[in-house]
Write a structure and sequence with these properties.
Number of helices: 6
Strand content: under 5%
Radius of gyration: 16 Å
Number of strands: 0
Order of helices and strands: HHHHHH
Largest sheet: none
Length: about 100
């Protein structure tokens, strides 16, 4: 029963052309105007937040978000089941949200 309710995994290749245009416009539009100092601050903040996670959770988030690996690739590499990878990523992101809420 639970398998039927699971959301299917989607890849970036399944993004429509309209969604791709929107992503490119909103994510990469301000790159020319960004300065080195703000990038350094962002990088430092990301490192500090990630350091609060367990090594395994940190690794999962880095592989998913920074390296762009799929859940299936991470599961195979770590010798975990795909649900375990999804749960680790979800819990790690929830933990980061809780930490960020304290500061915002």
């Amino acid at each position: 029963m639970r398998r039927l309710k699971r959301r299917p995994e989607s890849a970036l290749s399944e993004v429509s052309e309209d969604e791709s245009v929107w992503l490119n416009k909103n994510l990469f539009a301000d790159k020319a105007g960004s300065d080195i100092e703000s990038e350094a601050v962002s990088r430092d903040l990301a490192e500090k937040l990630l350091s609060r996670l367990s090594p395994e959770d940190r690794l999962v988030l880095i592989m998913l978000d920074a390296e762009g690996m799929s859940i299936a690739e991470i599961a195979k590499l770590m010798k975990w089941s795909t649900p375990k990878v999804k749960v680790r990523a979800h819990r790690a992101r929830a933990s980061l949200r809780r930490v960020l809420k304290k500061f915002l």
